[in-house]
Structure to design on (85 residues):
């Protein structure tokens, strides 16, 4: 099953590696990722993952990371719109 996450993190060299490591350890496969640097020196990460596991297992763990300021699971409608654009 495909899921999409919207993650806001502090801009630090190691934060992207931490996010990807937690994603892999929780059994999710990254299928697509977009990273943008915001004006306030934070980074916005759009992460599309695939797994049969519940997405809450991943989003709860990402929320616990010290550099993550926001983690939101996007609804399935947003997935369809993202795939069509």
């Amino acid at each position: 099953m495909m899921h999409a996450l919207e993650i806001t993190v502090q801009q630090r060299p190691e934060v992207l590696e931490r996010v990807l490591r937690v994603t892999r350890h929780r059994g999710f496969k990254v299928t697509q990722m977009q990273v943008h640097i915001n004006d306030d020196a934070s980074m916005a990460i759009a992460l599309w993952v695939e797994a049969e596991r519940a997405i809450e297992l991943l989003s709860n763990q990402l929320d616990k990371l010290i550099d993550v300021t926001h983690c939101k699971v996007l609804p399935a409608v947003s997935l369809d719109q993202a795939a069509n654009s």
Summary: The CA atoms of residues 43 and 57 lie 22 Å apart. The mean pLDDT is 90. Helices lie at 15-25, 55-64, 76-84. The two ends are 20 Å apart (CA to CA).
